[in-house]
Amino acid sequence: MLSEAILRYIAEVFIGDQEDYYQYKSGNVLVDFFNNEFGFNDKYDSGFPSRWYYTSEKIKALIESDDINDFLTKILSTKFIQIENRVTEVEAVELSEQIVNDFNRELKLEDHKINKLDSKYILVEINSDLKYIGEGGFAVVYKQISTGIIIKKLKEEFLTNRGIRSRFKREFKITKSLSNVEGVIDIYDFNNDEFSYTMEEADITLYDYIVNNDIDNEEKVDIINKILNIIKDAFVKRKMYHPTNRIVYHLV
Q1: Count of C-beta atoms within a 10 Å radius of residue 106
Q2: How many distinct structural domains can be found in the chain?
Q3: Cα separation of 175 and 190, whole Å?
Q4: Looking at CB atoms within 10 Å, which of 9, 28, 69, 168 has the fewest?
Q5: Which Gene3D superfamilies match (predicted)?
Q6: DSSP-assigned letters across all residues of 190-202
Q7: Quick one: 15 and 94 in the same domain?
């Protein structure tokens, strides 16, 4: 369960008391929202509690009933934000991203995070949502269970090293610039708060594919030609061309 402080923060943002992401919501509007959207049977009368307390209690109840993801998906959806704020679709998408970032900044303090999977938003515990994949000299790689996305994160001992941080971010920018090259996996977003970036999951490393399969010479030549064509298309030479760093993605 999230702390009362986190629940209050999310509640106050949603009711329009913090951050200016949502319009101000009166008590009767909140009662109608939770009754209509989530099947509560509350009444707005003279004994009604403070708006933030009522909302935080509803969020707590939704967590306990495993409906919290439906709540997050509703209030973070482009359509909901667009209608509520009378903004364009583009502006609504930007607002949604800002809200998620602000929520996650607070949630991270309690080892939680909101992840987006397609059009749904999912509240997860960070540690239980990460599966260790491997590591190199500077970073550790995880698979995010809730989304299937791969996360490459700078090791904790290097977070204060400006030179290594700069090198890590440059790696992200270079790799992301190659995402439109056929045969290169897609790179998504960089997280400045924890120095990590996300990417799509590939099938297997080139090393494992070669070791675990009986490959004839013709296929070996075909793989080599495809890799050389990718390098040619990218116009980039990097120091990371090692068999365990190469992955098989639409390559074989």
Answers
A1: 16
A2: 3
A3: 12
A4: 28
A5: Transferase(Phosphotransferase) domain 1
A6: EETTTTEEEEPPP
A7: yes
96 & 167 share domain:
no
Spatial contact of 207 and 246, defined as CB atoms under 8 Å apart: yes
pTM of the predicted model over 0.85: no
Residue in 12, 48, 18 with CA at minimum distance from that of residue 32: 48
Encoded tokens for 134 = 């491997």
Report how far apart, in Å, the C-alpha atoms of 157 and of each of 138, 162, 170, 198 are. 9, 12, 19, 20
Among 70, 91, 125, the domain-final residue is 125
What CATH number does residue 141 fall under? 3.30.200.20
What pLDDT is recorded for position 240?
47
Among left, alpha and beta (phi > 0; psi -120 to 50; other), residue 151 is beta
The answer to whether residues 44 and 107 belong to one domain is yes
Q: Which two tokens stand for residue 174?
A: 């270079």
Residues 211 and 138 in one domain: no
H or E element that contains 124 = strand 120-125
Q: Where are the alpha helices (DSSP H) in the chain?
A: 4-14, 27-38, 51-64, 68-76, 78-85, 89-107, 162-177, 206-212, 217-234
* Adjacent-strand bridge partners of 122: 115
